[in-house]
């Protein structure tokens, strides 16, 4: 199974493509889609859409994993991330890629077994699981890989329950 994990944002959208085979995961691609801050919002969203489509066409993921977002402080940030999520979901839908969403708690529990794990703990687990020489950077890419791994582990457990 090939899973694309996506951490949507307007400035940076993190993407990680992971292959899962017989309980072993490997990183196929990690990329930060960055947009120029001086461009219009519509131009930035268009760039995210175009570059994400290139990644989808190259790796042909079976499923996509996104983080279910929760904002309680900055409405402006939530609004911008929501627009980016919409563009990401549109690209995934048009490419007929099923979308699975996971809460931050599910990601933390899946990778560390601890719901209050710090970002550094999650990043260290991603590095260890994928046998990487260093922690993925920027954080958005590491988060995308964590979300993709969460799907790999959750999918495995859910299929065993069925």
Radius of gyration: 15 Å
CATH topology: Nucleotidyltransferase, domain 5
Corresponding CATH superfamily: Ribonuclease H-like superfamily/Ribonuclease H
Q: Count the helices. How many?
A: 5
Strand content: 15-25%
Short account of what is shown:
Belongs to the RuvC family. With 162 residues, this protein is α/β, with parallel strands linked by helices.
Describe the protein's topology.
Layout: E1 2-7, E2 12-21, E3 24-34, H1 41-59, E4 63-67, H2 75-94, E5 99-102, H3 104-112, H4 119-129, H5 139-161
Parallel strand pairs: 1-4, 4-5
Antiparallel strand pairs: 1-2, 2-3
Enzyme class: hydrolase
Keywords: Cytoplasm, DNA damage, DNA recombination, DNA repair, DNA-binding, Endonuclease, Hydrolase, Magnesium, Metal-binding, Nuclease
Cofactor: Mg(2+)
Provide an overview of this structure.
It is an enzyme of class 3 (hydrolase). By secondary structure, the chain is an alpha/beta fold. The protein has one domain (2-161): 2-Layer Sandwich (Nucleotidyltransferase, domain 5). The protein is 51% helix and 22% strand. It has a five-stranded mixed beta sheet. α1 packs parallel to α2 and α3 (104-112) crosses α5 (139-161). The chain is globular, with a radius of gyration of 15 Å. The model has no long low-confidence stretch (mean pLDDT 93).
